[in-house]
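OP here, attaching both records as promised.
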Amino acid sequence: MQYQLHNAPLDIISSVRFNPSERYNSFLLASSWDATLSLYDASVENGKLLTRADGVAPLLDCCWHADGRSAFIGGLEGRVRMVDLESGQCDALGDHGEAVKSVLFHKQSGLVVSGSWDRTVQLHDCRSGDRVNISPQPHKVFSMDMTDNLLVVGMAGRAVHIYDIRHMGEPFQRRESSLKYMTRAVKCIPTGEGYASSSIEGRIAVDFFDASHDVQAKKYAFKCHRAAENDVDAVYSVNALAFHPLYGTFVSGGSDSLVCFWDYKARKRLRQYPRYPGPIQALEIDCTGSALAISYGGDVEVGMECDTLKNNGIVIRSLVPGEGKSKV
């Protein structure tokens, strides 16, 4: 079963984030190019809009604070802001020289991590409002994710840096992406053993943190989100990835408007859902593994204009027990 959220943002929805707490797992944040951050209760059919906060410029990412009452946003303004979800008030937390592409909250330290097109990753203390650290990067930051204390930074130039967030002076691993073209998304495997990444060229790679020869021999990349159209192999960008918190499998979403479930251990596709009305922009599975949020709309990669009445929205798909589970 799935349903469309009412009161969707009016432009491309750049990210969707379920509350990480089981108690409030149905609460969903959505950041948008219309410069708004929306909070929904997705447990109600067609959703209930609880709060909509206005930013200054198009938003590219958002994340939750552990308290569940506030959130963090970043976008083309080049500033990280903290949003009070009850009042909608937005307070500046930190500045970048260019757009903020990714924001994360590190629960263990209480720090906000932001990655920017200005080629830096910054750590901010949301309690004091101070910038704790700034780490120069060789290229623009396109996507980031964390597992425990490990931070994966995917950049332009096929660069991937892996940090221990407690020691941000130098990355403990510098890697070249297994993908040949621009990185769109990186997501850490829930067990903490590695990460998946996707590119504009219809490929996904699975990599592992352990640098030993035996473990590195297991990494691989595969083609996906492609189709034969008029005897030509059409290739679509893979814009979003999300892991299932219980089964360790993951979903991918592409500019072909398709969402697929993958078993990365068996190297098999488990399921492909019917095509959505527009290119997939963001995905998120809630912490209980019972709901999948899918945002779709105009494609920023190819400059498609978004039809706000027909081609832009958020779908909540209920995941029945066993849906997305490995068949091996």
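Record two, same layout:
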Amino acid sequence: MSNSSSLTQFLLLAFADRRELQLLHFWLFLAISLAALLANGLILSAVACDHHLHTPMGFFLLNLSLTDLGCICTIFPKAMHNSLHNTTTISYMGCAAQVFFFAFFMSAEYFLLTIMCYDRYVAICKPLHYGTLLGSRACAHMAAAAWAAGFLNSLLHTANTFSLPLCQGNALGQFFCEIPHILKLSCSHSGYLREIGLLLFTVSLGLGCLIFIVFSYVQIFRAVLRIPSQQGRHKAFSTCLPHLAVVSLFLSTAIFADLKPPSNSSPSLDLALSVLYSVVPPALNPLIYSLRNQELKDALRKM
């Protein structure tokens, strides 16, 4: 029997038992992480250097790329290290840091996606007020609010999770530290209920953001369909499709992971779903935006 005061490390779930497969996972993760770092780095450089992208959407896209880079840098280094060195351990403090930063960047990304939806709503439904409602100061305040809300949400969950006594061993059924798997090791009923309460609050906040996104897009599509010219409708839709695709990817991968079968599911299925929602969105977001945004494509071509 162990508790959190004497626990010095956790055991993560290995991707494979065979050495050849472990090295294959290392090279695969290395390729994905380098591609994601390169793509998000190019977007950051393009937005920073090209004055055509010094717009509210460009500013929020820069912040979105920062959250994607944060997610990649939080998950991949330890997973690659374990695959390369044939180990599954992570220190107690390293696990706490991984939980905090992953929750922080994922929460901030969701709030930023909600703000970017507001940007599209104002641009299409209230174009005459765009400069007033989304000035540089307003954009900075909204981005700061997204980062602050993500920080607070992550801090509350991490502090509560790692204050619980752990008496069910130290083996996590996941390739990175995640709150639900750590809660399974807890023997504190009250602490578990506190975390459930925090989760319900977070879910309620997330549902509020989702309702706002859906309502905004209903208004956006109604406004676009009233545009008389086909070229105008196409241009309006093309400015919204990347954001809608990124939001759909973010939510669908998270929902698939949350709706996976309970304890009777295979470890390989758990790993596949975990990779789906923790790796796929940060890696694909830059590609989605660069394919549909002509100004971004022009800036990348210049670079």
